[in-house]
Amino acid sequence: MTLKHWCVAALGLLFAGAAHAGTIVAYTALEEDEIAEYVAAAREAMPDIEIKVLRLSTGDLGARILAESSNPQHDVIWGWAVTNMLDPRILDLLEPYEAKGADKLPAQYRSPDGKWFAATGYMAAFCVNNERLEAKGLPMPTDWADLLDPRFKGEVVMPNPVSSGTGYLQIASLLQGMGEEKGWQYLKDLDANVAQYIKSGSRPCKAARAGEYAVGVSLAIAAMQSIEEGFPITMVLPSSGAGYELEASALMKTSKNKEDARRFLDWTLSSEAAALYAKYKEIVTVPGYTPPAEALAAGLPEDVSQVLFPMDFVNSAKDREAILQRWQQEIGR
Fold first, then answer.
1. What is the DSSP secondary structure assignment for residue 18, as one 8-state letter?
2. Is the distance from CB of 249 to CB of 109 less than 8 angstroms?
3. Which of 27, 278, 294, 314 lies deepest, with the highest CB count within 10 Å?
4. Domain limits, the chain
């Protein structure tokens, strides 16, 4: 049975009746391959807990949680974009819980009221194809401003912010960093050099590594994986700061098994879990975590917080609808 089918089957069992003691249901937007590895490790660490998972994309998961808000069907939210978690309607469904180790997380990785914490996250990066750059006689970009060079016309590909959380965090960080007027002007100027906007956050990197474009504005993890797999890619973290998103977890007020739900949330901040995150994440917030040698060789700094743009997630969440509407009207294609 595939993970997808297992998730659906698990949810079907849940709707057939209330989850029994020892069972928890997690709703998540993490990717299927990482979910499988994490859950296997969690089950080994907590063999007395049955962990059922429903995985949906970030936007679809939010719609599901809101649709079920009068009768929630899950115990925890696990690894979901904090920008979405900050929707007041979602926050109202959460119960404060300080998971074991959460007090040691830097303040920006946890909620002041204890309603959420983030063990992992992802950040923007440029995937630059070295061979195409050389063939086209293009300079190595170091920041967003460099992508306005007319020589990059048709050589930049980006994620569509309407469909991609990665695309939205990139735009949100630019608007926050430059201010609204300069930020929107920059995005319009950049559009002249953008060949296309792709629905996925990782696909621009894949297009660049395939030699279709010089620069794929994407995710750091996609760049690092491409380098590790031998593609002629350089990972560039924007010198003005890389926009990022946190993957937050939380306890539902209505959980029918809060004791085990809390144990699971504790596990997500364990050193054991952090060791698994290294394979899939560029941002791991658990204290004591050190990026693997492969990540460092690809250009990831040992202290990722030094290169992150100071995102205002509250405003990012509040302004999301208006930003995306304006982007569609003035730039989208």
1. P
2. no
3. 27
4. 3-121+245-294, 122-243+307-330
The CATH code belonging to domain 122-243+307-330 is: 3.40.190.10
Given CA atoms 129, 130, 134, 137 in this order, what sign does their dihedral have?
A: positive
| Of 141, 128, 147, the residue nearest 204 (C-alpha) | 128
Upper half-sphere CA count for residue 268 (Cβ side, 13 Å)? 31
Full-model pTM = 0.85
CATH number for the domain whose boundaries are 3-121+245-294: 3.40.190.10
Q: What is the DSSP letter of 187?
A: H
Confidence (pLDDT) at 21 = 59
The residue whose two tokens read 């595939």 is: 2
The answer to whether domain 3-121+245-294 and domain 122-243+307-330 are alike in fold is yes
Q: Which two tokens stand for residue 136?
A: 């086209």
Output the six-digit token pair for 324. 């995306």
Q: How far apart are the C-alpha atoms of 83 and 53, rounded to whole Å?
A: 21
Helix H segments across 21-164?
32-45, 58-67, 82-85, 88-91, 130-136
Taking a C-beta distance cutoff of 8 angstroms, is the pair 309, 172 a contact? no
Mean pLDDT of 150-168: 93
Q: Nearest-CA neighbor of 123 among 288, 273, 299?
A: 299
| CA distance linking residue 204 with residue 220, whole number of Å | 12
Which residue carries 């989850």 as its tokens? 19
Alpha-carbon span 164 to 158, nearest angstrom:
10
Amino acid at 207: A
